Amino acid sequence: MESVFIGELTWQQYQARIAAGNAVVLLPVGALEQHGHHLPMNVDVLLPTAVCERVAQRTGALVAPAVHYGYKSQQKSGGGNHYPGTTSLDGVTVIRTVQDIIRELARHGVRRLAILNGHFENSMFVVEGIDLALRELHYAGVEGFRVMTLSYWDFAEDPEVIKKLYPDGFQGWNVEHGGVFETSLMLALYPHLVDMEQMEHHPPATFPPYDLFPVVPERTPRPGTLSSARGASRAKGELILEVCVNGIARALRDEFGAQH
Amino acid sequence: MESVFIGELTWQQYQARIAAGNAVVLLPVGALEQHGHHLPMNVDVLLPTAVCERVAQRTGALVAPAVHYGYKSQQKSGGGNHYPGTTSLDGVTVIRTVQDIIRELARHGVRRLAILNGHFENSMFVVEGIDLALRELHYAGVEGFRVMTLSYWDFAEDPEVIKKLYPDGFQGWNVEHGGVFETSLMLALYPHLVDMEQMEHHPPATFPPYDLFPVVPERTPRPGTLSSARGASRAKGELILEVCVNGIARALRDEFGAQH
Amino acid sequence: MESVFIGELTWQQYQARIAAGNAVVLLPVGALEQHGHHLPMNVDVLLPTAVCERVAQRTGALVAPAVHYGYKSQQKSGGGNHYPGTTSLDGVTVIRTVQDIIRELARHGVRRLAILNGHFENSMFVVEGIDLALRELHYAGVEGFRVMTLSYWDFAEDPEVIKKLYPDGFQGWNVEHGGVFETSLMLALYPHLVDMEQMEHHPPATFPPYDLFPVVPERTPRPGTLSSARGASRAKGELILEVCVNGIARALRDEFGAQH
Amino acid sequence: MESVFIGELTWQQYQARIAAGNAVVLLPVGALEQHGHHLPMNVDVLLPTAVCERVAQRTGALVAPAVHYGYKSQQKSGGGNHYPGTTSLDGVTVIRTVQDIIRELARHGVRRLAILNGHFENSMFVVEGIDLALRELHYAGVEGFRVMTLSYWDFAEDPEVIKKLYPDGFQGWNVEHGGVFETSLMLALYPHLVDMEQMEHHPPATFPPYDLFPVVPERTPRPGTLSSARGASRAKGELILEVCVNGIARALRDEFGAQH
Amino acid sequence: MESVFIGELTWQQYQARIAAGNAVVLLPVGALEQHGHHLPMNVDVLLPTAVCERVAQRTGALVAPAVHYGYKSQQKSGGGNHYPGTTSLDGVTVIRTVQDIIRELARHGVRRLAILNGHFENSMFVVEGIDLALRELHYAGVEGFRVMTLSYWDFAEDPEVIKKLYPDGFQGWNVEHGGVFETSLMLALYPHLVDMEQMEHHPPATFPPYDLFPVVPERTPRPGTLSSARGASRAKGELILEVCVNGIARALRDEFGAQH
Amino acid sequence: MESVFIGELTWQQYQARIAAGNAVVLLPVGALEQHGHHLPMNVDVLLPTAVCERVAQRTGALVAPAVHYGYKSQQKSGGGNHYPGTTSLDGVTVIRTVQDIIRELARHGVRRLAILNGHFENSMFVVEGIDLALRELHYAGVEGFRVMTLSYWDFAEDPEVIKKLYPDGFQGWNVEHGGVFETSLMLALYPHLVDMEQMEHHPPATFPPYDLFPVVPERTPRPGTLSSARGASRAKGELILEVCVNGIARALRDEFGAQH
What we know:
Creatininase/forma_Hydrolase (chains A, B, C, D, E, F); four-stranded parallel β-sheet; two-stranded parallel ribbon; Rossmann fold; globular; hydrolase activity, acting on carbon-nitrogen (but not peptide) bonds, in linear amides (chains A, B, C, D, E, F); 260 residues; 40% helix
């Protein structure tokens, strides 16, 4: 059976899939960013790619190569861009990367794209890349190209799921950087890349109602995570995966309809 | 007594204020964006400017001319950029505007800037403008320039305040576009620009856990607001103003210290 | 009666005005720039905005929010960009701001725009913004968008007017920075922002037939003005206003025809 | 004897000239632009290059290769950019070209540059290129780089010269596009490229006190010139050349001092 | 033992490696590009990444996440950018991506980078990204950052190796797109992604001594390869790998010295 | 007889040529770059311009003004960008210059352009300029614009010609910087600009199979040439010229057909 990854197809295989009509392409967008003492720095690429793979298997969509570098880590969502290892792009580079990829997909005949973002900070630059690309497509007389953007974690918002993941209470997505959510997913998907021995427990990060630039590094919990991964488990990861893959597959069907 | 608005000072008055040391400049950043049937389109400029003015009066800070155009309205936070009247800038234009203003303030000798954002969609582009400006200042050998960014509504998060504003329950900031919060502030500050007769009541907007581009216009409540302004009042506006001005003044003191 | 300022309208009011056909939008473009010891730094925004307001009242046009920051002050026209307080944008930022605003107005259905420039240095960057916007509109299949650009002072060139303003002889527009012309207008419109006590008399600036970069600061008259405001008066300001408003209203009628 | 043109030197010859200290480089900046029925389209390159050559011979300066393409022709100064043959650059291309050349000259050790502009519309984009380059040089720790910009015609403003050139009265530089001034210079320098038989006499162009975009082509006199070249002569061209070369040589000496 | 892939390290592991001094980072730069009927479209990412991995294992270098999208395929080197599936970036996007990554690596303390290019068309844009990054680092006062760029195939130029690979004669690197070289490497490294059954034999592509835009698609051999992969073998792939890894490891040692 | 140089035509002459149909424009693209001790720095402009002139005389094509500055000299093709005198543009400046010129030619009605590159390093930036311009023309609804790019030396690849030029064996184009090829052409075309007395003989440059940034200057042969010009002669230059002009004229006929 053919791979769901575009990169693993020949151009003829890809062409056949697009020509069959109504093809949906999934684009994972991530970052190279510190995720504390116990997680590797490619979490934001690995996780949306894994979700994309499963969604594609279920729906017949195709997965484009992930964007491996993302926008600058912000203190309140990713600890800040001052950590060694975190390797970020300027905003305009993210914008143009997204814009260029869409322009090319449209040339291939694709008209349905879902961008799965694994790194919160990318969001608005992805939006701008889409807007500029759609503007260009309009100039080119290409209408009907539709893009869905999503952060996979937004599909785990069901209160029952939240309760299972956080039996002692949910702190909010704001502090979910290297915490129970991402760590559980990594345990389910890439356990050899997680070192729970190194995981450092700490209370959830708290921040004032403003941001400072340059950041005051001491305001990020020392390991770089914003909440503790204590309580993460492989089972929780599998639950998240199931919920997110189901939800995203449904969203694609609702918005983009069936594929051939 | 001298104006707090830089634009109303002569260059000598301004120079004297900067030379006195530790001057703080406040920059309101807004948008021209639809705010429903009952509010004018400059709400996102008027409100942060008014907050800046009051903070400046209390703290001795100076207020730079507002940035009157902002980034594209998003459906889940501002109704979407398809409305007539909403007049938005590309991301890179917002980025460069902020970057240029900071470069110039630094040339004047300013080292403390607080950017008060009145339009949610600006946030990440403002962040990028700051980052690029600080990078440039570093090249120029200017160190020690510090920037605070804030959205004034984040200073009204005290549960007691929220309870007074939303006695029937708070729907979250997500749907606060042209709702009780902004309308109350406008009633307190610019009542002649509010037409409560035209206000259209509707349940809070609900959206799926993803975004679509182009937006599906029908998913925005028809008037363009994301929640109803029913329940807005001048008294609530005055409460918000007091709470926000107090909080921001305190934040400036905490982070930037006393001015001379 | 509805405001002439777009920012003070709801989107529905604005939409109705555009839909009525042949709507003309006026865009004041200014700067934050030193204007000597006796004038505030927002002169280049206040004056074109005031002219726009009056033209709009007479013609039924609408006034968009002013662009409050402009291109770098040049020594021979604005004293130079080395003064504290003068806060200028890079050329490309001005270009893109104008381009973005036109693109959005076109989306709203506007086809007639007049840009009233209050800051000489903006001129060519405004022109480029217009050219790029019209190019884009052509790509988008939008034809028939027409833009007028003007500097309001060019409407006061009638020799009889000049004679009344400068009974001792006119030095030319080149040295009109903070001189009789702008000061008279400010006295007529915003007298509380003028401090004639601080006005420093000096002979008109003279410059060699070339420019130097970096500027030699001493070549600008010390107060920053290029000619003396001695002789400015409220009456002259009113005369200028009348002449300019009349002339611009006529130009709009001649070029853009009647509005509905 | 060595050429004054940098392009005709070996790198060693060039290096020796720079190393001798205080070298001045002259950069002609022009355009490919229609100049009526009797003049070729490279007038704006040929004339400043010829002036540069003579100034260099007199002062020991060096002449860099001309920038052969310039900013878009404007109706009131060059007839408009709608003519066939007129081949113009976007503003940012002009800006970056100037910026790049200055960066490289600075690397070579040059610290004195005079930019001779032959095409009015280039002016502000050249200014911006210089400003961005000086900003960069400051980042690089290179101080003391000085740039003079000039339009050679500004050195012919002596009333006695004007009287000789325009015995029947001077219409102003505004309409000097393909008129007596440029045609006389071409007759003195490149008579084989002038075809006075084709020259079409017409009254000076008159324009309203505003600009329209797109231009109304009929408002430019049909041949594309803004005033008539009747009255142009080789002798006048030689007078202009002498006056301009003298004036520019003196300006270089005044501002940049003697070369070694 | 720790991974050689930066993405699989925690920030602390990475930091320790950089702090040990003289760390070398390897950056694979590829493309998503058709490679004929028998190879997948991610060849240009897979191959340099695999070479990097082996070089890193031998030398102690670290491998950054690959850049997965590259510059537009050219007809004479990659068949042309008109194929479905080929998904390319604009030049400036490639430039900025490289520039941003270098800026960040420098912030981490890295001073030695080798960029392994797997897609010929990237070359000059990578060069420009490096040049702009080094310019910026100079502004920031960071000196001593050194970058090596290489295409791994240039290390297989030993005539004896060439003879083993191409016993019937070498056609030159120009036509090595999806031919014996890349196919052999894929057979050695990722045999499951190669389908030799689909491989279409054809004579080497021949082109005129110029390029045309838009390309004439028929001038590319139908499968998209520029020479036939007949003759490719796993053994050849292993030979290439050994030769390239040896050569690159030696080059790193020669230029960057020993690592700690 | 009319000049083949567009710059020496009036706009009417140019218009008539374009209107006649099927006009071909030739654009020489060069650089200001060191070429050793015996050649001037404008070789890369002079040579393609001379080739263009002869091709135009033979085919009826027109020659646009050359682009006089080019992309940064690379060590292996031009000695490196560290030499004094070499004056290079950033990549994006080259890209935009080409893009702007094409946009304007298309406006004039031109549909056939051949870009003759005299400076190897320009190649990919010219390609990108063309691609962006064709994309824009597509937006503007202009189809059928075709561009040929070529380096004139690629037309001298006939083994018999190579044998006559290099009787002792050809080292490859890689080291042809200021060597027999360019020097012979200069001797045939501009002998007064060649100083064979200063020519420094040296063995061909050899480089490792990678590039380093910043370059190691000592790896370029001291004079800056990459191979010796010993053996250059006027006769060889005339042979090259004949072969290249013939070949290019034939290519234009083959691809663009006859002109009227």
